[in-house]
Amino acid sequence: MDINNSFYEASNLIISLDSGLIEIISLSLFVSLSAVIIACIISFPIGSFLAMKKFYGREIIIIIVNAFMGLPPVVVGLFLYLIFSSAGIFGYYQLLYSPTIMIIAQIIIVTPIIIGLTKQIIEDLFIEYSDLLLSLKATTIQKIQTLIWDARFSLLTVALAGFGRALAEVGAVIIVGGNIAHITRVMTTTIAMETSKGDLSLALGLGIILISLSILINGSLYILKNMSKL
What local confidence, expressed as pLDDT, does residue 228 receive? Predict the structure, then answer.
């Protein structure tokens, strides 16, 4: 195994914009972005509602959300495999080994994280705005809309954190996606497969791209946090 040669070949793949490399990166971004956008649409209102409203069973829901923030991805993959396999209750839809089921897996993984972080952000903001919203006689929906808009920079950092988590996920997507070439092969699963085969050039190329995206996401988070303080 020639490490220097592998780095050289990986650099050539990136510089030449290798079609196979671009295809894998594009699918990875599509799956993760789709999952995070859907998760945000679900999570922002739910997190805001949990932050503002006191109701019976609220604490139980919060405990469940917090527990699911650390949900092992392989468990999510196993669960989805069982219910979407040919013998499962949703086997009729034939979603196994498709980008759609990979998006579903990432939504399940990311949603509790976004709900939990959203709740924390909106809860702090609601304390500051509660008297004003009460004086304006705002409805619950209006309160949620107002707080989400005012916390938009902070919530965008939450979305980016969720995107970083989804993009780096490997356990669930390799179970439900199968890492099929040209269909469900994403960056993390390809890195794992190519490394196990001893073919490091593609793995290194994707690794460099993944690290670059991670730096870009964290840089964006830093900038947005500073903007939210202005």
Answer: 61
Distances (CA, A) of 168 to 27, 40, 52, 53, 223: 13, 18, 32, 34, 21
Q: Which residue has the tokens 């993944």?
A: 210
Question: What is the C-alpha separation between 3 and 20, in angstroms, rounded?
Answer: 21
Domain layout of the chain by residue ranges: 3-228
Low-confidence ranges of the chain (pLDDT < 70): 1-2, 227-230
Stated length of the chain: 230
Distance between CA 218 and CA 224 in Å, rounded? 10
In whole angstroms, give the CA distance from residue 19 to residue 35: 24
d(CA 55, CA 123): 15
Q: What is the pLDDT of residue 122?
A: 92
Cα distances from 166 to residues 34, 52, 104, 118, 128, in angstroms, run: 10, 28, 11, 17, 32
Residue keyed to tokens 């073919």: 199
- Give the pLDDT confidence score for residue 97 in this predicted structure: 93
For residues 41 and 38, what is the distance between their CA atoms, to the nearest angstrom?
5
In this structure, what token pair is assigned to residue 189?
Answer: 């699963």
Residue 1: predicted pLDDT: 52
Can you give the pLDDT at residue 55? 87
Closest CA to 79 of 105, 43, 103, 106: 105
**Architecture field, domain 3-228:** Orthogonal Bundle (1.10)
Rounded to whole angstroms, how far apart are CA atoms 166 and 106?
A: 6
The pLDDT of residue 229 is 62
